[in-house]
Amino acid sequence: MATNKKVSRFLAVALLSVVGLTACSEIVARPSDYKEEIVSFGDNREVYNNIMSNVYDALREGNLPSDVLNEVLYQYAVSMFGRYNKLVGPSNEDSLLSSGVTLKEAAASAESADHSVADAFIKAHHAYWSVNSNGDRVDDSGDVRSDNGNVASDTEIKILIAKWNTIEDRIKEKIYTEIREGAYSYRSQFSERTYLVSLYAGLEKVADYNSLNQVTLASSAGYFAPKVFDAKYDYTDVFTQYLHRENYQTNYELGEDESGSTISYIEDSFIKEIYRELLTEQYLLEETYNTLGRSYARKVNIISLSTKEKSDKSAQYLMNYFVNNVVYAAPTTADVPATRITDVNGDPVSDNRVGEDQFIALSDAYKGIYNADLSVLAKNYLENSQAFDPNAEIAPDYYIGTDYGDLMEEYSKIDSNLLITDTSIENDFTNNGSYLKEVGLELKTRNLASTTYVTKGWFIKNGGLSDFSTFRDRLFNIGVAGALDNFKPEEGVTLDYDQYDRFYLDGADWKIDTTRDFNSYVARINGSYFLKKPTSESVSSKDDIVFYNSDSKTYYLVQIIEAVSSSKFNKNPDAWNYDRLRENLTDPNEKNPLAGYVNEVAKILAENDSYVTLAQKHWLEKMDLEYHDEVVYDYFKDNFPDLFD
Known about the structure:
The relative contact order is 0.12. The chain has 23 helices and twelve strands. Helix 1 (about 5-20) crosses helix 3. By secondary structure, the protein is an alpha+beta fold. It has a domain at about 295-565. Strands 3, 6, 9, 10, 11 and 12 form a six-stranded antiparallel beta sheet that branches. Strands 1-2 form a two-stranded antiparallel sheet. A two-stranded antiparallel ribbon has the order 4-5. The radius of gyration is 29 Å and the shape is globular. It has helices at about 5-20, 50-60, 65-80, 105-110, 115-125, 155-180, 190-200, 210-215, 240, 265-285, 290-295, 315-325, 355-365, 375-385, 405-410, 425-430, 435-450, 470-475, 480-485, 580, 595-605, 610-625, 630-640, and strands at about 185, 190, 300-305, 390, 400, 455-460, 505, 510, 520-525, 530, 545-550, 555-565.
């Protein structure tokens, strides 16, 4: 790693030449037209403040220092990760950082049979190197490389692909947040047309709606159909449910040439911010990697069903139905019944494991919006659980006690007879006469569709899931991590991955034994993992996975998808980390998850302001900046005083 200082110092010079932070004899360097007039009238008239210095000074005294910081950090990030694609890069197109292979081209090579482009790219960008604790580049066996490093290791190829996928994921997340939080919806329905027209009017580089509507599928029915932000979708679905990506970024697929594109809203609006985030995360990866393993990160699906005053048993009945009939549904395959839950490689065999889709369907059943959008699963739960009574024996409009049922019963109190109508409810549904009650009902139904009782995703112990005190401490216990990935696939050893599952095959019949759990924290049921109640440590039962908070009268079910530990994040080739634990898996989406999981956890930790500041200070020290503007100098000195000791 002796060359790293030389590389970073060389890159720092390149960066400084772009933003103008070069050394000079004066602390304030002014532009040549500093004292020139802003507007010339061709005569001798004098106009107050008609001088360029007012513009420059306003810029310097406004956001200039923080803008300079952001630009410096972004360009340094480019030096580490490579340019995202040919449309973005350093501000100065003549910069050395603007040339060469892009990350997109390298990722395309990494995903293909020919890794030569990716190999060269990785060699030039040490952020993708596989290194030991001393920072030395190592091969897949953990040995320090003594060759020229021209060929990337398999681990480095995975790191590169994971980084590209991380950026793609961030793009979806950021644009989804933008459309959800922006004023692009009318009557609770998002309109891509409104969003696109707004961006185009703001001179953003997006597709021209007027031209688009005439020459593409935008003229066909449904292309710009307004949509509710349905809770069954999240940011990962933004380009399949809400936006057409080609209207904001063209030729975005790996292998496509984007160099001639005039549509670059995604590149212009999100890439710099994403790169600065990645820079903070890279600090964690390089300088405090062990923090990631000690984060107790968990990936979970959580369903929360609260008891209602008018139907005090519905939440309990629905949860019990779900546990007994869905979670404890006997393993099945295409050849019913199944003969295994998991094969000898650790791959799933049973095809009815509980997952995110089932949790979302349970949430939808509790909401009870009984219309064409209700999924088959949710409809089955609603109709078969007997947790709610239909309002009619034939073709019910709603189920009494569901959220939608409560809404409909309120709606039924509105009457055309002014003498008996409930005026307060009528005003609520009509917004005090602003629209018809039918419109109000539709708006409230749309708002209900956008709510969910499911909490899902990655969370860490420090601050994560703070609203779930009922089980939070138990979820982040080290015993949870021990119960997942407890098999070590050693060569020549046949493993029974199902030995700790509550289901076992007795002849041709599946039976349940709740004492087969690996430990007292987690129950494995048909291949899925669920958090157990503390009372279940001595006595196990089928319902010991259902939590109940008597204060809030809420029932919880917690499915654990992943549970991080220091050992699972250990990069030593001899360690039983995620990649080694799952090396026998055949599904490419499940195999070798370490690089992707590391990025997920680093993202959460990097949202902490203290880590952001530490990372900025760290990288600025690497750059060894010199300043020529007093405002910029003062800003950096105030915010990073250690740089000036």
